[in-house]
Amino acid sequence: MMPSMASTTNTFMVRIDPRVRLVTGFAASLLLATSRSWEAALAGLLVSSILCLCAGIPWAGLRPRLIAVNGFMLMLFVVMPWSVPGAPWWTVGAWIYSREGVMLAVLIAVKSNAILLILSALVSTIDTASLGHALEHLRLPRKLVHLFLFTVRYMEVLHEETRALLRAARARGFVPRMSRHTYHTMARLLGMVFIRSMDRSDRILAAMKARGYQGRFYLLNHFHGSSRDVAFGVVSTILLVLIAWMEWG
Amino acid sequence: MHITEGILSAPILVGGGVLAAGGVTIGLRAMRDEDIPKTAVLTAAFFVGGLVHLPLGVASVHLVLNGLMGLLLGWAAFPAVLVALTLQAVLFRYGGLTTLGVNTLVMAVPAVLSYHLLVPILRRSRRPSILFGAGCTAGVIGIAFGSLLASGALALSSREFLGVAGLFFAAHAPLMVVEGMITGGLVCFLWRLKPELFRERGRSL
Fold it and tell me: What is the pLDDT, as a whole number, of residue B200?
């Protein structure tokens, strides 16, 4: 269930303060997402690939995501060149499949892949509990952070429960098809997951109140920035400024 | 119903982020402290519901369930969607961080819309056909309005995306049917077993 990379890698990346990684990852994706120049996009792809290699991100975890993102890009290649004016690659009647459109689609694909790789290296290597704490340290609303932490906690439980119900249905000969019966069955199955989990949350809240829960989590592990974090922050800021300079300089 | 990173223009990303932040703020105000665990359970349930794949012709679709999310959570659907999308971005690198604002709007605005349109009906009626119809409508609104918003964001981002936007919207038509059928069934089922779900939760502001 948890394809988080946090446990699978044991490189320098996991030792860098999650807050630093989160902020850097966000800044880098914002920069790349809004860039329109080839230099910036290609530099971003290069840096993010190197980052992924250094962080030891396993290819097996990366591949399905790359396939999914580039599947969407395929749609861009099929559709977009028809609506971008420019030198014709080929023409069908009045419709022009333009070279400029293809180039634009390639640029977008480069940017999307670069962002995906950066997030994989920087953010996906944070385990979800630390991510929650990092968010609280970054002064996000307390309720939102709590919602996040609780959701992380329940997600796996619910996934297990859904899988169990699906297994039970399959054991009784249920095969999902395009039919009313399938939709009916799935509605009841998911309904059961909802009901069970609501009851579970009532029990958990009662148990937490019994232990003195007052609507707050107290952070026990505080992050401490080290010289390594500062060095990482400085190097990434320099790289980001360089890429920004390629874009707008 | 995701828009991938690297496609939308900066004004759309920023505008989406600001609007989504507004919605999330309203949603957080509507959510009391003791509602947090329940909202989280529902968020997790929607997340898991999205992992269930159903066959559709030769392809398979996964459920979004944002219409139902609105019916059960009201404005709290905004923070719930944001959390679910953040988790997706981090765990599966689906969507991404810069598009969080736009993608939150795409899913949460139809949710809040179905809440305001349909919860009054659900509170008054107990006829199964009306319950199913209301649920079904929520499911259809969730996908139809959501993919319309996503296509709008694409089209507004750049004129070059007009074709892609149209295709994006059209591709979601079959999902509307599946989503409508399942949300309708879910509402009937939940109403029979736990009618208080539609009364207690998702208070208006």
Answer: 57
Q: How many CA atoms lie within 13 A of B123 on its CB side?
A: 14
Question: What's the topology of domain B10-200?
Answer: Arp2/3 complex 21 kDa subunit ARPC3 (1.10.1760)
Same domain, yes or no: A68 and A157: no
> Residue A5's pLDDT is what?
47
Nearest-angstrom CA–CA distance, B152 and B154: 5
The per-residue pLDDT for range A143-158, each reduced to its tens digit, is 999 999 889 888 888 8
Q: How many domains does chain A have?
A: 2
Classify residue A122: in a domain, yes or no.
Answer: yes
Q: How far apart are CA A86 and CA A110, in angstroms?
A: 21
B173 close to A (CB below 8 A):
no
Domain locations along chain B: 10-200
Are A17 and A95 members of one domain? yes
B197 touches chain A (CB under 8 A): yes
A178: containing domain: 139-210
Residue A6: inside a domain: no
Question: Any CB–CB contact under 8 A between B43 and chain A?
Answer: yes
- Nearest-Cα distance to chain A for B124, in Å, is 21
Of B5, B90, B194, the CB nearest to A123: B90
Interface touch A150/B94, C-beta < 8 Å: no
| Residue B185 Cα, gap to closest chain A Cα (Å) | 5
**With pLDDT > 90 as the criterion, what percentage of chain A qualifies?**
21
Of B85, B152, B5, the residue nearest A34 (C-alpha): B5
Choose among B38, B89, B189: nearest Cβ to A201.
Answer: B38
Question: From CA A187, how far away is CA A210, in angstroms rounded?
Answer: 35
The answer to whether A138 contacts chain B (CB < 8 Å) is no
User: The tokens of A207 are what?
Assistant: 């148990």
Any B CB within 8 A of A38 CB: no
**A223-227, B20-24, B67-71, B180-184: lowest mean pLDDT where?**
A223-227
Average pLDDT, chain A: 85
- A116 part of a folded domain: yes
At B142 the pLDDT is: 95
User: A133 in a domain, yes or no?
Assistant: no
Beta-bridge mates of residue A91: A96
